[in-house]
Amino acid sequence: MECFPxxxxxxxxxxxxxxxFLRTHSFLEKTGVYPGQPPLLFALYKKNGxxxxxxxxxxxxxxxTMTVMIKRMEKTNFIKREQDEKDQRISRIYITExxxxxCKQLIExxxxxxxxxxxxxxxxxxxxxxxxxxQIRDNLVVGCDKSKExxxxxxxx
Length: 157
Prior knowledge:
The chain is mainly alpha-helical. It is about 65% helix and about 10% strand. Helix 1 packs across helix 5.
């Protein structure tokens, strides 16, 4: 028995998320990048030398998870970690030349995925869908923030 009908709004949303993950993963395998790594590469591609702490916050992941991701990506030479010159307690993360090259590949992969996902959509349909997706995102961000606040209250007890 299913928790929710497959053709319900939530069922379709969950299925699309899973299919998107599988399709994207098939492309990522060719680049040597793992599914959670593109957001970090894109963040560094836009603004290199960010602190490990700031990156974890922006990506909404735990600092320990960020540490594991950084170590893995250092081994593949996509990024490098250096101590901040002014404050040795801060680790700054930099994208390498190899990381820049793979980031350019990822941009092309995402363009292809976008074209595949929205084939046969009119511009008006894409505008409406974008607005709806932004509303879903905003709802989830609020929920995540509330969840984080309640966890912080629990931690401080």
